[in-house]
Amino acid sequence: MSNPADKFDYGELRPDRTGQAEAFDALGERYDDAFPHKEGQVAATEWLIRSLEPGARVLDLGSGTGLPTARRLSEAGFAVFGVDLSAGMVALARAHVPGAVFHQADIADLRPGGPLDLGRFEAVTAFFSLLMLPRAEILLALRTVHHLLVPGGLFALSMVEADVDDVTIPFIGTSIRVSGYLRNELREVVESAGFEITEESTHSYAPAAADVQPEVQIFLRCRRRA
Questions:
Q1: CB 23 within 8 A of CB 171
Q2: I want to staple 24 with a disulfide (CB 3.0 to 4.6 A). Which of 2, 6, 86, 142 is the partner?
Q3: What whole-number distance in Å separates Cα of residue 10 and Cα of residue 105?
Q4: How far apart are CA 179 and CA 88, in angstroms?
Q5: With contact defined as beta carbons under 8 Å apart, do 58 and 71 qualify?
Q6: Which long-range contacts (CB under 8 A, 24 or more apart) does 35-38 make?
Q7: pLDDT tens digit string along 153-191?
Q8: Torsion, CA 223, CA 43, CA 20, CA 153, rounded to 10
Q9: What's the CA gap between 124 and 126, in Å, rounded?
């Protein structure tokens, strides 16, 4: 008989975040300057606000500077928690959203039996944070999100559409490693992790940074299946 914990087991995987947090530490406030328009992200956040009961617990994975997601959710009266790998981003988020709680941590830390237990949530957001993982870890991260949500809990996810796995790209004067999927494959991966996708939208986006290429952003609104 298989052990339910096996689906969270990293096995021989050795998560390598070398340079990822440092890149965002160096970016600081310039990250928001490079991505000034976040219509898809704002729309997904407003969907959560309309859908959740007052005081709901919401987790923002890859919370960055806290803008706009954590701030808007906090202003709406939710109990907001954020997790980010970058100490610099966590410091900015704490300054921008003093009503929320932010942790410098890896999403792998939140898996069952991991070093950081934040309890369960009515909703989780992951706006462009899972693309920082190699594909081998993205499914594990999605299963962790499923574990963190209460039954029927909501999940707002965004990714950049790209058929790449852990490739290095230039990014606002530094470099990062990213992964992505074509949209049909992304849907399959998300559904296989135990989610029902209730709505999908795409946005063509041209960042305000010379070394960041225009991209197609995929936004999925999901619900945790039991």
A1: yes
A2: 86
A3: 17
A4: 23
A5: no
A6: 35/205, 35/207, 35/208, 36/208, 37/205, 38/68
A7: 999 999 999 999 999 998 888 899 999 999 999 999 999
A8: -20
A9: 7
Confidence tier at 92 by pLDDT (50, 70, 90): very high
Handedness of CA 93, 218, 106, 209 (dihedral sign): negative
Per the structure block, which two tokens stand in for 36?
């000034």
How far is the C-alpha of 76 from the C-alpha of 118, rounded, in Å?
Answer: 21
Rounded to an integer, what distance in angstroms lies between the CA atom of residue 39 and that of residue 139? Answer: 26
- Does an H or E element contain 223, and which? strand 215-224
What value, to the nearest 5°, has the Cα angle with vertex 106 and ends 98 and 141? 115
The whole-angstrom separation of Cα 28 and Cα 18 is: 18
Rounded Cα distance between 165 and 135, Å, is 6
Gap between the Cα atoms of 46 and 53, Å rounded: 13
Q: Residues, the chain, total?
A: 226
Strand ranges inside 72-148, DSSP E: 79-84, 101-104, 121-127
As a whole number of angstroms, the distance between CA 21 and CA 86 comes to: 4
Distance of CA 187 to the CA centre of its chain: 16
Which positions ≥6 away from 206 have C-beta within 8 Å?
214
Sign of the Cα torsion 107, 178, 201, 194 reads negative
Asked if 108 contacts 137 with a C-beta cutoff of 8 angstroms, the reply is yes
